[in-house]
Automatic annotation (TrEMBL):
DNA-binding region: 34-53
Organism phylogeny: Bacteria, Pseudomonadati, Pseudomonadota, Alphaproteobacteria, Rhodobacterales
Keyword S-adenosyl-L-methionine (UniProt): no
Transmembrane segments: none
Keywords annotated in UniProt: DNA-binding
Stored PROSITE patterns: HTH_TETR_2
PANTHER family: HTH-TYPE TRANSCRIPTIONAL REGULATOR RUTR, HTH-TYPE TRANSCRIPTIONAL REGULATOR UIDR
Occurrences of domain HTH tetR-type (ranges): 11-71
Protein name, UniProt field: TetR/AcrR family transcriptional regulator
Length: 198
């Protein structure tokens, strides 16, 4: 019973710390966030951070995974309201790029994430997005909508294009001006995969 209670407490603390980290990283950035202030804001000590996350970077990784997972769900929802499978794929990519204008996404996932966690294409959350893109590409090739190209290569290029476009928009001096350029280029590049029937 004591072991179960301890694991429940650890999970409760983990949830609290992710929420506190998310708030702090969004407002202060990763470098500007104090772990003492962050943990105290949820009634915990700095020592509560280590069992679940190891360190501040581990907490950032957990927060990035949560926010990036939400981004994927939002992109999926945007795709669901588009027309056919091809338009859904493009709508998902476009929605993902547009999230670079969201201040929380911009700071946590697109600026601090790569700066402190390294290459986003290696993050588990990005690999989950890649799997969804592979499934969509598989369906589109089977339906003759896309050219008969290597599924893995096409999925990586499409996912990578959306991610890199979002990174560019987020880092731009004028994100609102960069966004339509990024979306237009993403859609134009993606159309190169379409099977032409003429």
């Amino acid at each position: 019973m004591a072991r179960r209670r301890r694991s429940e407490t650890m999970e409760e603390n983990r949830v609290k710390l992710i929420a506190a980290g998310r708030k702090a990283f969004a407002s202060e950035g990763f470098s500007g966030s104090s772990m003492d202030e962050l943990t105290a804001s949820v009634g915990l000590t700095r020592g509560a951070l280590y069992p679940s996350f190891g360190n501040k970077t581990g907490l950032l990784a957990a927060v990035v995974a949560q926010v990036d997972g939400e981004m994927a769900a939002r992109a999926k929802a945007a795709g669901a309201s588009a027309g056919d499978d091809w338009e859904q794929l493009l709508a998902e990519g476009t929605a993902y790029i547009a999230m670079a204008l969201d201040s929380e996404v911009r700071r946590i996932v697109l600026l601090d994430g790569p700066a402190f966690l390294g290459d986003p294409s290696q993050w588990p959350s990005q690999n989950a997005c890649l799997q969804g893109t592979k499934q969509a590409v598989t369906r589109l090739i089977a339906a003759g909508v896309m050219k008969d190209v290597d599924i893995e290569a096409a999925a990586r290029l499409l996912s990578g294009a959306a991610l890199n476009a979002a990174l560019w928009v987020a880092a731009s001096d004028d994100p609102h001006s960069a966004l339509p350029k990024a979306v237009d280029a993403f859609r134009l590049m993606s159309e190169g995969f379409l099977a032409r029937t003429s």
